[in-house]
Amino acid sequence: MRTQNEFHEERDKDLWHTYLQVCENEMYSNGMDAVRRSVQHEAPRFYVSDERAVRVLSWMMNGDERMERMMPKRREMFHEIYRRTMALRAQHPGSSLTELVRRVVCRPAPEYYLTPKSGYMILRQMRRRRRSEKMKQLLVHVKRLQNNLED
Q1: Which pLDDT belongs to residue 77?
Q2: What CA–CA distance (Å, rounded) separates 146 from 151?
Q3: Which residues of the chain, if any, have pLDDT below 70?
Q4: What is the pLDDT of residues 43-66, one digit of tens each?
């Protein structure tokens, strides 16, 4: 079973690649336009575990009030998973809810289900992380060069 953090890491990397792709293909007057376009872009999957999705879909089927307390984008994502699961159930009536949800969450999602502000924060963090990794690589390279010169 994958942890929530693993889904966040995968989502963040995928969003970063989408952002680079969006920026490469189109010119934007400001960065937030590119971020907005990136979070609205199709995502490679729904970033939620099948276990969590089954639990939430069960709430939806039983009219549980917890859905109302959920953040709007998150609620929108679960409604889309529910819609797709019910369509798949009509095609495969003998399949279990878990089996159907597992198939749905691994398929491409229509968007990342993030607000532009959340997308901006994730991309800013990714940019900092990448910059830090490049600096570490550069320092290792400089140390090797120094060692070679001393030998």
Answers
A1: 97
A2: 9
A3: 1-4, 28-29, 151
A4: 999 999 999 999 999 999 998 888
**C-alpha angle 90/94/99, rounded to 5°?**
90
Phi first, then psi: give them for residue 144, nearest 5 degrees: -65, -45
Instruction: Measure the CA–CA gap between 9 and 46, rounded to whole angstroms.
Output: 13
C-alpha to C-alpha distance for 13 and 125, rounded to whole angstroms: 11
Distance CA(42)–CA(18), nearest Å, equals 9
pLDDT at residue number 97: 96
- Indicate the pTM of the whole model: 0.81
- d(C-alpha 111, C-alpha 94), whole Å: 29
Q: How far is CA 47 from CA 9, 11, 79, in A?
A: 10, 6, 14
Distance CA 48, CA 68 (A): 18
* 20, containing H or E segment: helix 4-25
Range 51-75 burial, b when 16+ CB lie within 10 A, else e = eebbebbeebeeeeeeeeeeeeeeb
